[in-house]
Amino acid sequence: ILNKIKPNLLRLMFYKESEIKRREILFSKILPSQVEDAVRELNGLKNVKAEKIKEKCSLTVEYNLKEHSLYDLEVFLQQKGFILDESFFNKIIRSMVYYAEEIELNNLKG
Fold first, then answer.
1. Do residues 9 and 60 lie in contact, with contact meaning Cβ atoms separated by under 8 Å?
2. pLDDT in tens, 26-50
3. For residues 100 and 85, what is the distance between their CA atoms, to the nearest angstrom?
């Protein structure tokens, strides 16, 4: 599976040693209009910047790991009724990012 992951995605997930994270959130293709609403919701959060990715059912989100995590942001969206992409491949990628961020946050705390 890992050889199917785009090199840029791996770099975003593991090699950016910074508190500022930039991630992609993929949504179910059933409701493509939900992406614009999700961008508005995320941009309403403190120190979060979200932007729709053109021609895709996804957005990019930038946040400080000391304030937010991808897991927290995705749970926030799901609680608001947004439907994320639940493909097997995307679930694996998200789980790896959640784990990497948890470890990195623990390292940042000392």
1. no
2. 999 998 899 999 999 999 999 999 9
3. 20
